[in-house]
Write a structure and sequence with these properties.
about 75% helix, mainly alpha, elongated, Four Helix Bundle (Hemerythrin (Met), subunit A), about 180 residues
Amino acid sequence: MTRNILTAVLFVLVTGAFAFGQDDPPGNDFVANETDRPERADILRRELQLSPEQMRKIRFLNAEMRPRMRDAQLAFRIARRDLDEAIYADELNEEELRLKMRAVNEAQAEVNRLRAFSEVAVRKILSPEQLVRFRQLRQRFARQGERGVRKTDRPGAMRQMRRDRQPDPPKDPKLP
């Protein structure tokens, strides 16, 4: 019994570390993130040379998917928070922990299902040539994201952060 509890807690901690280390799951470059990254959407439209009809279809898809993705991501964040509370409750309830883990898995599955659905829908809108270019652009965006995610990656950033945390020196009462 104790071994089962320890195994469940260890599993939750390991998977939780991965889940909590991530922000919201990434979305399709056309769908759900368009408001967060308008420059990427503009680049995609320009680089892919989308026709007015394709742009209309993608806008319609965005209007349909954005609220659904937002709701699914919110449900996922709430499920993760509830799981965290169950893990660190004063008394460990193994059944409640299992239910919370199931809720997290189901919420994450819904986010993944919506993302896959939207990506398939976008794929159906693009021509074969545009699809090739779209893949290249996604790879470029991913590389840029890897380089730009952490503010501490640039030279001197850690030193600046330490400086920013230091309190201001006391003011001399004689100076204005």
